[in-house]
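Figure S7 source data.
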Amino acid sequence: MNVREIFETMDYGPAPEDAAQAMAWLDAHKRTFGHFIDGKWTKPARSFPSKNPATGEILAKVSQANASDIDKAVAAARKAHKAWAKDAKTRARVLYALARLIQKQSRLFATLETLDNGKPIRESRDIDIPLVARHFYYHAGMAQLMDAELPDREALGVCGQIIPWNFPLLMLAWKIAPALAMGNTVVLKPAEYTSLTALLFADLSREAGVPPGVLNIVTGDGSSGEAIVKHSDIDKIAFTGSTSVGRKIRSETAGSGKKLTLELGGKSPYIVFDDADIDSAIEGLVDAIWFNQGQVCCAGSRLLVQEGISDGFYTALKARMDKLRVGDPLDKCIDVGAVVDPVQLETITKLVSESAGDIYHAACEMPEKGCYYPPTLITGLSTADNLMQEEVFGPVLVATTFRTPGEAVELANNTRYGLAATVWTENVNLALDIAPKLTAGVVWVNATNLFDAAAGFGGVRESGFGREGGWEGLAAYTKSKGKAAKLVQIAPVAAPEKADVESLDRTAKLYIGGNQARPDGGYSQAVWSPKGRLLGHAGLANRKDLRNAVEAMNGAQGWGRTTGHLRAQVLYYLGENLSARSDEFARRINHMTGKRGGAAEVDASIDRLFTWAAWADKYDGAAKGVPLRGIALAMNEPVGKIVAFASDDAPLLGLVSVIAPAMAMGNRITLIASEPYPLAATDFYQVLDTSDVPGGVINILTGSHTELAPQAGGHMDVDAVWTFSGRDLSTVIEREAAGNVKRTWVNNGKGHDWSKVDAATFLAAATEVKTVWVPYGE
Ligand code: NAI
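C-alpha cells for the predicted NAI complex:
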C-alpha cells in the first residue's frame, strides 16, 4: 500500500513488533528448557514443543514434569520456607525488585507472551504486563505491612499453583505475588501451551534476589498438575482453569487438609438497558468478548439487550464487528489475534457448528493460515441452549433480549456460573439496584473487564471460591497463628440397665421453616443422662428432612436483603429470650453432660449472641482506590444457604456460636445439632419461636452426622457446608462438595475452642466479597 492509498482508505498499515530480543532469549537457552527448581535449571527431559499459534512455528521445547520432578520442587520449596517466612521486610524488597524488573523488561515479556499465546501485542503490552507489575508493587506493600496489620496471621507453607494459558504471566503474578508476600514458597505449573513467559520470569527472578527454592516453576500437562495436587507435602493448592478440572481437584484434595482456592469458568452476562450509551456499550463489548479472542474466564459472553433497542443494537454491533482487525498478533494494529492452539480452535468451531442459532461471522478479512476464528454473534437461541449455558472460550458472543429489569436479572442469573457481570445504563439508580441482585463475584457498571491488584477477583457458584487481589485475597495465603484445640468426639450415653423415666415425655421434633416437623423416617433416638435418666427423644433426620430444610431456606431468601440493623435486633432478642430461660437451659446441659458447667455455658451463649448482634451492622465493605477511572466497592455479601454440623461438646454454645454469625451476615442456615447432646438444640426451638426469627432462616435437625454429611456435601442447592462435628467428616463433605463446587469449612480432625470468638474466621466464612466497579471521579 502506498501513501496515497493509505490516505484514501484511511486504513492502518502494518506495524509489526520486533521479536528479535525474545528470540535471542530463547536461543540463549538453546530453545530447550528444563524446570526451574531451587534456583537452578534442571536438565531438559521428556520435552514437548511450545508453538506460536499464529504461525505454527515451534518456539522452544519444554520439559514434562513427572512425580519425581514435583518431589524435588516441593522439597526445595519446603527447605526455603522457614527463612523466607521469617522476614517480611526482605520479602517486600524482593517483590519490589520483581515489580521493577517486570517494568524494565516489559517489552521482552510482552513480545514473548504474544509469540507464545497469540494475543495481540497491544493487549500484552498495555494490559497484561502493566497489570503484572502492578500486582508485584501492590503485594510488595502487603509484605511490608504484614507484621503490623496482620499480626495474628502467618504463612501456610508450600503452595502448589496451577494456571491456565489465557493470561500466562498475569495469572502467574496473581498467584505468586500474594503467596510470596505472605511468606509462602511456591511450586507453580504454567499451562502446557504457554510456559515460556513463566520460564523467562524464573530466569530473571534471580536478578531480583529471590532466594533459591522460594520460587519453583515446573512445566508439563495435566498429569504434572495432578502430581502437584496429590503431593503430600503441599499446604495449599491454587487453581485457575476449567470447572471440570476444578471439580477433580476438589475431590482429589478432599480431607487432605490442603487449603484450596478455585477460579473457574463463567458465562458472564453483559446487560444493556435501553437508556445506555449505545456506542460505549458496543465498544465495551469489544473489550468483553473480543479481548484476548474471548479466551477470558470473565468474558461478557452472554449479551442481554433490552428488547426495544435490540434490532438497532445488533445492527450497530455487526457493523463494529466487521471493522475488527484479525491477524498477526505481533502487529500493533490488530484487535483480534490467534486462538491459543488448534485444539482450542477445534473446540470453538465444533461448539458453534452445532448451534441452531442465527450465526453471524464478522465480515472482516481473515488470515489464510494460523489459528484464527472470526468474531461471531449468535442470536435466536433459547435460554436453555448449550451455547447460552456453556463456556465457549473463544470470540463468540451469544445474545438474547429482555423486557424489564427484573427479567434481565433472572436471565443473568440463569446459569450455574457466577463469575462476573456487566451492566450498561445511564441511570445510576437502575445500575445500583441491579448490581446487588446479580449472582456474580464481580460486577462492572458502564465498563467491563477491569482488573486491579487492590480489587478482589473471584466467583460464586460453579465459578469457584476464594478471591485474588486486595486484603481479601491474602486470606487464601495465610492462617491463624496458634495451635488448634483437640477434636472432641463424645459417644451418646448408652441406655442404662435400669431406666429412670420421667412422668411426662416432651417430644422434640425437627425444626424446619419455623415449624416443628416429625422426622420423615419416623425414627428417634433416646437421650439418656449419665445417671440413667431418660431426658427425652430426638428425631433422626434423613435425606428428605435435609431436603425440606433446604427448601425452607429457599423460602427465606429475603433474609439476605434485610439490613444489618434489623438482624442485630433479632440476635439481641434471641439473647434476651435465652436469658429469660437460662435456668432451664443450664439444668438441661448439666443433665445431658453429667457436669456442672450449664450455667456458665448459657451465660457464654447469651454473650455470644450479643457479640454477633454487635457485628451484624459493622462488618462493612471497602472502597478500593484503583488506578482507573472509578472505584471498586468490596461488598460483603452473605454466602447464601449453609448447612453446619455442630460440635459434640458445648451443646448450646457450639450451636449459638455457629448460627449467630451465619445469621448476622444474612445467611440462612440448617444446623445439625450435637449428636450426643441434641436436646439443648431442640429446647432452643422455643427461643427461636419467640424472637422474631423468620421461618426458614434457621432450621435445626437432629440425627446422625455420618449419615447426613454426604447428603449435605452433595446437595446441589446448598452454598456452603461447615463441620465442627466430633466425627471427622472432612473427606466426605469435601469430596461430595465437588458437585456444585460449594464452599466448605471442615475441621480435619481438629477441634474448636468455643470459649473464644474467632470473629475474623467466621466473618470471612459467612460472607463472599462482591467487587462492584462503578464510575467515580474524573
Ligand atoms: P484446563 O482446566 O484443563 O487447564 C488449566 C490448567 O490445569 C493447565 O495448567 C493444565 O495443565 C492443568 N490441569 C489439567 N488437568 C489437570 C488435573 N487433572 N490436575 C491438575 N491440573 C490439571 O483447561 P484447558 O484444557 O486448557 O482448557 C479447556 C477449557 O477450559 C477451555 O476451553 C475453557 O473453556 C476452560 N478454561 C477456563 C479458564 C478460566 O480461566 N476459567 C482457563 C483455561 C481454560
